[in-house]
């Protein structure tokens, strides 16, 4: 039952499942065997829809009833809608689910602190794509058994063998920030260029990402409940012109998340609901896909039971968890050193560091060491 293929770089799963779950705030032991075979997934965003697609692919063989609950008939969570290219080119195809439609291949990055451009980064190959996220998630929902109503996962535990919380920031633990996003007419920028405008002391960022013929703009800051005006001022400072905006919307993003694999009642969590969100930039699509795939691979289905291999799930997402923790540490560092220190780091770190950050590969503490070294050394 190897669903993941090459999507997750982990060691082979052990044949015997040991009981280590007591260390992780859970009602589960190392393996849970359930006679009730129905599965409920609450939240039909990226994580929930991917999980439902993967499990439903086995439905004809096992006869499992898989129900997904969501409050909205059409998915439209505001975000920057950019993803690492390897998610689209490698990870998603390996799972056998539909690929998102690529709108732009991003080849250049302008990194700024405040209104000052600090660095430009040009990777040798495309490392980011701009996608139509809402279109993709709505296509993933096609053919699924979706019930459109809001439910509390805790109210489902007595009816289903497995209950999955995929509600994103609405059930995660950690600090929440408000994010504002809009689409903008192209002010004359190249459609392969992304702008990331960071703030150290106020811990936040503003983005300008290509989105087809238009641009996706937005941002958020810790402690600022309505970031719209500040984002618009920053956009003007950087672009030197007012942008024509439309389709404005708000959302929440979790920063400094607490990793929580399940709730105390045994509800399994994936994606941002589990705290799998990157604090440096708010990347959540890739962790959502990978954690959904990991859970699908940890659920063994048959006609008369469901077995949840807890250790398998934890092992599979270990790399994502380490990345999440490192992002939190580095965001705390940025908030301490302020804009001056952040500029110094961006000027001094090597290109491997920048590439690892943008590609979602900050999984080693060596990058924290590199950032500290960049902070203290003179610019060459």
TrEMBL record:
Under InterPro entries, the record lists:
FAD/NAD-bd_sf, Geranylgeranyl_reductase
Fetch the Gene3D superfamilies from UniProt. FAD/NAD(P)-binding domain
Q: Which superkingdom is the protein from?
A: Archaea
Query: What residue ranges are annotated as transmembrane?
Result: none
Entry protein name: Dehydrogenase
